Amino acid sequence: MEQPLYDLSPVLHIMLMGVVVALGPLSWMWLRNKQAVPARRLQALTLLVLFLTFDLVLFGAFTRLTDSGLGCPDWPGCYGQASPTGAHAQISEAQAAMPTGPVTHQKAWIEMIHRYLATAVGVLILTLTAGTWVLRRRGAAVSPWWPTVTLVWVSFQGALGAWTVTMKLFPAVVTMHLLAGLVLLALLCRQAVTYEHAQQGRSRGAVAPLLRTWLLASTALVWLQAALGGWVSTNYAVLACGDFPACQGSWWPPMDFRQGFELWRELGMTGGGEHIGFAALTAIHYVHRLAAYVVLAVLALLAWQLARVDALRRQARLIGALAAWQLASGVSNVLLDWPVLVAVAHTGGAAGLVLVLTWALAETRRSAAARPAAVGARERSA
User: Fold this and answer.
1) What span, in angstroms and rounded, lies between the C-alpha atoms of 103 and 80?
2) pLDDT tens digits for 180-197?
3) Residues 76, 116: Cα–Cα separation, whole Å
4) How far apart (Å, rounded) are the C-alpha atoms in residues 213 and 40?
5) How far is the C-alpha of 81 from the C-alpha of 91, rounded, in Å?
6) What DSSP line would sit under 88-152, residue for residue?
7) For the chain, how are helix, strand and coil distributed in percent, rounded to 5?
8) Burial class of 24 by CB neighbour count within 10 A (0 to 12, 13 to 18, 19+)
9) pLDDT digits (tens, 9 = 90+) for 209-231
10) Which of 303, 305, 297 has the alpha carbon at shortest distance from 210?
11) Minimal CA–CA distance to 75: which of 177, 181, 163, 153?
């Protein structure tokens, strides 16, 4: 009998597991900040959730890169059970039929641990939202709408996670799942900066209009590049080019852009139901690589410009370091045949760039003056 895609019988057990996992970091945060004012505890909780969400994004990449996304072929449990232990017989049967297939004991555990961690992050975001509303009702000068939007967004992210399984790793859905995780990071980063400003009694600093525009454009390019990178990963197109800087010994290898960027199709198939061609995978890979050259150049110029502003030097150094990290890890993925650790590190670098750029945007605003002062200090001469 075929396993149903949705089986809600273990949902309460999985929610309980998420609560248990969340209690650990919540208890640590409470003990560490028990003497702090409520607003400070709220800021600490936001930073904790941000850190754990970053870890969740990395573990999600690890789940995808180890082909564990279908380690449990149903959702939210595993063969209708709350853990792979309860589904031991079914997993053993599937593994015996296909020892290197999508369902093995190792892959099932990786998939379910990812779901437990995601549920725990959801519990923490729910706690953060409730705490913010309570403080607001007590008269605190905090906006509850950022965490409320974040709670709605993490619910949508959970739905994408379910569709990732039930739609059998549909590339567009898996890519949206990755991007939604990065959006979640950006939302939490924005909240953390807002709470820091409230704690310190300061507002966003003014920067030159051109610099603010360049920062916005750079952020948009990084998001586009993250989407292209997700498309490479979810279509398993990394190894379409095994050399660098050329591809298949050519500067312009045979490519099928129409087939490669047909968005709504099953994994490994075209919209017409045929197997996707190698030229399509090459197009997916090479477009990401060509775009990377542009993005890296833009980020280098942005880092140089931000370094001239006293209060943005940390962001400038981080952007420069992360851009170099992305170049090194991206090239290593190609030359070393896509090792899991390096591939996860590449995803982490993309997430880090999203965080730092969001941080820089949250710290600044467009100045109305013709020649504004720098954020919190004068601009340093070139």
Assistant:
1) 14
2) 999 999 999 999 998 888
3) 10
4) 32
5) 11
6) HHHHHHHHHH-TTSS--HHHHHHHHHHHHHHHHHHHHHHHHHHHHHHHHHTT-S--SHHHHHHHH
7) 65, 5, 30
8) exposed
9) 999 999 999 999 999 999 999 99
10) 305
11) 163
List Cβ neighbours of 313 (8 Å cut-off, separation of 6 or more): 306, 307
Residues 6+ apart with CB under 8 A from 46: 128, 147, 188, 191, 192, 195
In the numeric block, the tokens 């560490």 are attached to: 32
Per-residue pLDDT band at 3 (split at 50, 70, 90): confident
**Sole residue written with tokens 């199709």:** 265
Residue 163 CB neighbours (<10 A): 18
**pLDDT tens per residue across span 84-99:** 999 999 999 999 999 9
Q: For residue 379, what pLDDT is reported? A: 46
Instruction: Indicate the SS3 state at residue 70.
Output: coil
Report how far residue 66's alpha carbon sits from residue 343's, in angstroms, rounded to the nearest whole number. 10
Q: Return the structure tokens found at 118.
A: 């995601």
Q: Interior CA angle at 351 toward 292 and 237, to 5°?
A: 50
Angle at 158 between CA 153 and CA 163, to 5 degrees: 125
Q: Looking at the annotation, which residues are catalytic?
A: 111
For the entire predicted model, the pTM comes to 0.93
How many C-alpha atoms does 240 have within 13 Å on its Cβ side? 26
Q: What is the C-alpha separation between 125 and 41, in angstroms, rounded? A: 14
pLDDT in tens, 96-142: 999 999 999 999 999 999 999 999 999 999 999 999 999 888 877 77
Which pLDDT does position 369 carry in this prediction?
Answer: 56
Residue whose C-alpha is closest to residue 44's, from 31, 55, 29, 56: 29
Non-local (6+) Cβ contacts of 27 within 8 A are none
